[in-house]
Amino acid sequence: MREARRDEIHYARFGAGWRLWSMRLLSLAGIGVSSYLTWAHLAGQSVACGQSQDCDIVQQSVYSEVAGIPVALIGLAAYIILFLLTLVRGHIPEDLEDYVPLAVFGVSLIGVLYSFYLTYLELYIIYAICRWCVTSAIIITAIFLLSLPDLKVAPSST
Amino acid sequence: MTTTGKKQRRSGRQRTGITTTHILIVAGAAILAVGLLVILNMNRSQTQPVTALTYETGLTADGEPYKGSPDAPLRIVEYSDFLCGHCADFAASLDVLGPEYIETGKVQVIFRNFAFLAPESSQAAQAAECALDQGADRFWLYHNLLFAERGTGLPAYSKPRLKTYAKQIGLDTAAFNQCLDSGAKKEEVQSDLDEGRAQGVQATPTWFLNGEVVRGALPESELRDLLQRRLLQGS
Asked: Quick one: which of B197, B225, B227, B195 has its CA closest to B212?
């Protein structure tokens, strides 16, 4: 009986129903967007952008790579990690599971901060906005916000 | 033990769960990680000094700038946009292979504008054509400088900046500015674009090695291999 109650606590601690599913869907969407951008960058292909060339300007700017690694690839890695984190519930030791919300918080925080920096570059340095990048920024910010309620600090023990 | 709520149960467990300290540490690490990414992104080319050309340059019969010898067995016709990152990479690869292939008369490189990315592309292409008016060597110096200045994004292609590049490489600025301001090269750049499209060029860089099309830049080692193979084949 106590085991069942413990499971209940975990469920309540990481991702009450809709939030967890939202984070899953959002990270999947993030994987989709960043895969597309990564492929376009590596294949030298043009990025779908309506009538505008702005996406290509951003994608081909010097800022689209960090130490030789496409920025989109870094985003893809982050989204994959986030997606996996939303799946581990029930599959890893309970002690570790306590820290999953912290991991989601940390990874998405990196994503949010970096996206803000990249958006700043688009607005004030490159003077071109890539709508896909904006989409990703919105996605990662949403994931970050959704992760905050789960950061319940444990009350001081005993 | 009666069940009086979650709090009671929590105090029975050994785990501490997430603490404020944890959150602060993770947040701090996140900030450091992003800082690192930003710094890595910032190590961009500071403006490179304009180095003198070491190869032969000239104009083809069609008025296109070339570098290398017209008698070279291998001829590369390159369609590029000055705003295009991969074009900059391609130009850099060609530069590295220059002493080995271009200066030695093995490869001739002919440049054609394919200014399609943005209005700034056309303007930069026009500026390069204005530089070409003052000599093929001036064109290549201007071309090198344009690619070197990519680091700062679109502002690098503003009219004032385009004019300072001309000054930097010692062009007759009165003539250059007049050429650029009057839009004298606009039609030419447009017809180069149309001609490129007619040849099947859709993105940049697209180049033709003795007539055979290659889409995209090649890393230097692959480019070298390709040129070597062609030279050995004697085509």
From this structure: B227
Q: Which of A11-20, B3-12, B16-25 has the lowest mean pLDDT?
A: B3-12
Tokens representing residue A17 in the block: 């129903």
Cis previous bond, A93, omega within 30: no
Smallest Cα distance from A118 to chain B, Å: 9
- Beta pairing, strands B57-59 & B107-113: unpaired
Query: What's the Rg (C-alpha) of chain B?
Result: 26
Q: Structure tokens of B20? A: 């404020």
With helix as H, strand as E and coil as C, how does A82-106 read?
HHHHCCCCCCCCHHHHCCHHHHHHH
DSSP percent split of chain A into helix, strand, coil, nearest 5 = 70, 5, 25
Give per-residue pLDDT as tens, B163-192: 888 988 889 989 999 999 999 999 999 999
Query: pTM of the full predicted structure?
Result: 0.58
Q: Which residues of chain B are within 8 Å of residue A62 when distances are taken between CB atoms?
A: 44-45, 85, 150-151, 153
Amino acid code (one letter) for A53: Q
CB-nearest to A110 from B19, B33, B203 is: B33
B77/A133 Cα distance (integer angstroms): 34
- Distance from C-alpha of A12 to C-alpha of B9, rounded to nearest angstrom: 14
Which residues in chain A have their CB less than 8 angstroms from residue B22's CB?
99, 102
In whole angstroms, give the CA distance from residue B103 to residue A97.
64
Dist CA B150 CA B128 (whole Å):
15
The number of beta carbons lying within 10 Å of the beta carbon of residue B112 is 22
Residue A124: count of CB within 10 angstroms of its CB: 10
A92, A21 Cβ separation under 8 angstroms: no
